[in-house]
Amino acid sequence: MFNIFLLVIICAVAAVLLMSMYKRCSEYEILVISNKNDKLKPKKIIPPKGGAFINPLVNECAYVQLQDIMKFTIHDEIFHENDCDETFECSVGICSGEEYYNILAENFAGLEKKQIAEIAENIIKKELFEIAKEVELVDYLNLKNSDEYFKRINDKLNKVGLELLEI
User: Which of 21, 120, 26, 118 is nearest to 64 (CA)?
Assistant: First the structure.
């Protein structure tokens, strides 16, 4: 009788440990698993609605939200000597699709939405400066409302797993 009771307790403890080690993704996130000693390199990426057992002694895990939309304001001070200080709203989202999972895991695992928005804002500002170096003020102002402008900024954001939704 005592052996059966002991076996039940051991099985219950093992079940609780296994349940705490199992991590599951919702349909709007990916799970990034990495070694504790090499946090920068994802070891494994679990797609949406997937799950995996994580050994907390060896591995760490972080989620990347796939539906985050970040809105922020950009102060365009590129031609400030010509009194062209303009403010505009940007909406940036996370690229969807399996081809972006590795890029997202490397760039954003464990980061908060605010940190990701700062990265996007810096990329957009840098690209604005690059565009401004290439054209005159009048051309720059005309370019800002064109599809070419939108596409060029979006291409830079896509390289890190983000996409420009609206500017």
Answer: 26
pLDDT for 135:
66
- Helix (H) or strand (E) run with residue 19 in it: helix 2-21
Separation of alpha carbons 110 and 112, rounded Å: 7
The span from the CA of 17 to the CA of 54, in Å, is: 11
Residues of the chain with pLDDT under 70: 38-42, 68, 72-88, 135-146, 167
pLDDT at 143: 61
Q: CA–CA separation, 149 vs 24, rounded Å? A: 39
Instruction: Give the whole-angstrom CA distance, residue 121 versus residue 12.
Output: 50
Distance, C-alpha 104 to centroid of its chain: 5
Whether the model pTM is above 0.85? no
Residue 123 CB neighbours (<10 A): 18
Say which CATH topology domain 69-166 has: Tetrahydropterin Synthase; Chain A (3.30.479)
